[in-house]
Specification:
alpha+beta, 2 helices, about 20% strand, DUF1059 domain-containing protein
Length: about 60
Amino acid sequence: MKTLKCRDAGFDCDGVVRGNSDQEVLEQAGKHAKEVHGVTVTPELAAQLKPLIKEDGKQR
């Protein structure tokens, strides 16, 4: 399972998105960002978020 914590992306938010792949996590993060923060995840932002995705509790 892969995870991305919203707080790691610079938001004051306890949201965590999970998925089986980086792509799945980024899709969930995009939905969360839009619904909760009013932010659209652009390809450039997605590229910045990808290194923040953790696998098995370890930073990649």
